[in-house]
């Protein structure tokens, strides 16, 4: 979505962040570098929230979500 695209753009333009993986529009997680993620920033749909959270927990990655519509 728009928010996710903006986050990706800002992170890519900043020297403070390195995007090492991302998930876009129902695709699999894309690994961009050999780095290990420290934080998973989730702005997916509610249907993918559990999957993203599970991935973060299994890989011991901090999890931040801005997903709306969760019940």
Molecular structure report:
This protein is an alpha+beta fold and 71 residues long. The chain is 35% helix and 17% strand. It is built from two helices and four strands. The protein has helices spanning 2-13, 46-58; strands at residues 21-22, 30-31, 39-42, 62-65. Strands 1-2 form a two-stranded antiparallel sheet. The protein has a two-stranded parallel ribbon with strand order 3-4. It is globular, with a radius of gyration of 12 Å. The mean pLDDT is 84.
Order of helices and strands: HEEEHE
Helix and strand content put the structural class at: alpha+beta
User: Any low-confidence stretches, pLDDT <50, length ≥5?
Assistant: none
DSSP strand count: 4
Strand order of the main beta sheet, please?
1-2
Biggest β-sheet strands, sense, barrel: 2 strands, antiparallel
Number of helices: 2
Mind telling me the C-alpha Rg?
Answer: 12 Å
Mean pLDDT: 84
Fraction of residues in helix:
25-40%
> DSSP strand (E) fraction?
15-25%
Distance between the termini: 20 Å
Q: What is the 3D shape?
A: globular
List the keywords:
two-stranded parallel sheet, alpha+beta, 2 helices, 4 strands, two-stranded antiparallel ribbon, about 70 residues
Can you summarize this structure?
With 71 residues, the protein is of the alpha+beta class. It has 2 helices and 4 strands, in the order αβββαβ.
Task: Map the helices and strands.
Layout lengths: L1 H12 L7 E2 L7 E2 L7 E4 L3 H13 L3 E4 L6
Parallel strand pairs: 3-4
Antiparallel strand pairs: 1-2
